[in-house]
């Protein structure tokens, strides 16, 4: 081989990592691989942080602190089928987002992810000063030295619920609460679980769309109508050159063992995960609805498609080691450290931070 040919080969090998990283329809892929297709692998370097050193963790997510005896659920790493995830680097994250704002908007699954990200970053800068404030439905975690605000806005439906003489009305085509989302650098939305609540847990009495009012409605249909109102707002009010928008995807509930072949079971006592790569219960209908709505949007919204990879983790929930203790069974939220750390690892990869490429991050 000639000298010039050897130089070309050497240059190609040097540039290969950068050539492999690209975006397809706004979604970062590495070597053409889908970051959300893969498998869970045991990894003794996990978890990404020791929850006992995260002083602001919510008790409902602190499964170890609440007495969970098994630890294998902490030791899994997500491995995409055709590539490796970039290693999470909290210091790089903080540097790149100095002076920026990140807001999680949604229900307590967004709270789960918000807490996870705060713990992951705190692990890298444990001596950094921070403040936590909570006013109404808005919680703010601020890394003072970096002027970085990471917020959680509790908004389970994204669309509005208002009080009237007739009762509490869920307005599928009203989204006045979205005013709080303007001017944020990164928005991460989530909704689904509260659309299923009935009885005392249902926070509305009537459903309204346009001039029509209903006592009830098919919940999946109502979810899609509300989501389309949200999508219209994003298309009309978000400047993609200034704000990146993510949708968290639908986090699965593991209350019904029939979905994975265990009649009468739930997440209680589960110390193993499902083998995969597909979930025995099939695709999640709400996740399919999210994908359909996002595909019809004008503005690019990145789907953190965490549904399938989370469906496999029947072992990752607090079960009796959550907020209610042994009086309750929580198969909806997730232990921390745990599965939401992987959601944030994928979020990190989607931002493209390790490449120091201004086309991939704010």
Automatic annotation (TrEMBL):
<keyword id="KW-0812">Transmembrane</keyword>
<dbReference type="GO" id="GO:0005794">
    <property type="term" value="C:Golgi apparatus"/>
</dbReference>
<feature type="domain" description="Trichome birefringence-like C-terminal">
    <location>
        <begin position="85"/>
        <end position="349"/>
    </location>
</feature>
<dbReference type="GO" id="GO:0016413">
    <property type="term" value="F:O-acetyltransferase activity"/>
</dbReference>
<dbReference type="InterPro" id="IPR026057">
    <property type="entry name" value="TBL_C"/>
</dbReference>
<keyword id="KW-1133">Transmembrane helix</keyword>
<dbReference type="InterPro" id="IPR029962">
    <property type="entry name" value="TBL"/>
</dbReference>
<dbReference type="GO" id="GO:0016020">
    <property type="term" value="C:membrane"/>
</dbReference>
<dbReference type="InterPro" id="IPR025846">
    <property type="entry name" value="TBL_N"/>
</dbReference>
<dbReference type="Pfam" id="PF13839">
    <property type="entry name" value="PC-Esterase"/>
</dbReference>
<dbReference type="Pfam" id="PF14416">
    <property type="entry name" value="PMR5N"/>
</dbReference>
<comment type="similarity">
    <text>Belongs to the PC-esterase family. TBL subfamily.</text>
</comment>
<protein>
    <submittedName>
        <fullName>Protein trichome birefringence-like 43</fullName>
    </submittedName>
</protein>
<keyword id="KW-0472">Membrane</keyword>
<feature type="domain" description="Trichome birefringence-like N-terminal">
    <location>
        <begin position="32"/>
        <end position="84"/>
    </location>
</feature>
<feature type="signal peptide">
    <location>
        <begin position="1"/>
        <end position="26"/>
    </location>
</feature>
<keyword id="KW-0735">Signal-anchor</keyword>
<keyword id="KW-0732">Signal</keyword>
